[in-house]
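Justification of resources, computational component.

The compute hours requested in this renewal are based largely on the per-chain cost of generating structure records like the one below. Each record pairs the submitted sequence with a full structure-token output. That output is archived, and it is also reused by downstream analysis tasks.
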Amino acid sequence: MVGLMSVNKIESLVDAIGRLNSINNPDSLAYQIRNPLLLVSFAKPGRHDVNEDGLRVFSSLLAGYKAATYDVLLKIKGLSRAGLKPTDALDNLLGCYRIAEKAAKDNVLSFVKRALKDDSLTLRTPLSYFLE
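The structure output for this chain reads:
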């Protein structure tokens, strides 16, 4: 029997936010544009495919998922224009993805806690936790 693989912490965040954005609902915007985080393009015009709202449009869910995990990783490491640092809280990261309502934040937190089997997580957990 093969042992259980641990869940990637970055992917758990992408999965939680994607779930919040209804990535598995074919009627949702996230599903239609294959963009689990509803990432906005800040690149020069023409560099990325975008919809009328400036959201990135991906050719496949895999492409969107890869971009999403890379985006989260850059933010957590403090390498993005968002200005986050590894010492910032999970709550700050969620703000980068326009998640402001308490219920939505709690939904993401609950998902990640279950995915990672770690009840100690809070919205104040430093982003560095997700790099371990």
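The CA atoms of residues 7 and 51 lie 32 Å apart. Residues 9-131 form one domain.
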